[in-house]
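Action item from last week, closing it out:
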Amino acid sequence: MKKPMSEDFLNRRFQVFSAVATLLSFTKAANALCMTQPAATFQVKQLEEQFNCKLFIRAHNKVVLTNEGESMMMYLSDFKNTFLEKNKQQSSIKELEKCFGIPLFSEDGKLTSEAIEFANSIYTIRTLSSTD
């Protein structure tokens, strides 16, 4: 079994892989990431070794994703979208907390008693105003 790599190295390798997959060129990806082409190639080779699969078919000046490479790109795209959505949700929650002046969620992700009390108050007010 391969030794696990640190998060920083793994993140950088995924970043390089994604750039190569998008640009279909190790040289263009390296330039975009301000690194040398051999360094970009090394990062992708390390990722291929870690997952024990080929991510690209390399032929002269042409790079094509393998099926495994396509799967990896789909996974990374899904992960990125989930990450961005989660950040968007957290920003919205922080804006609501600032607006209402109370914490909505505790560290363990549960609604705080203040948030529940606030929601109950709003429900009560709406219920009373709809009966008028």
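Closing note: The mean pLDDT is 82.
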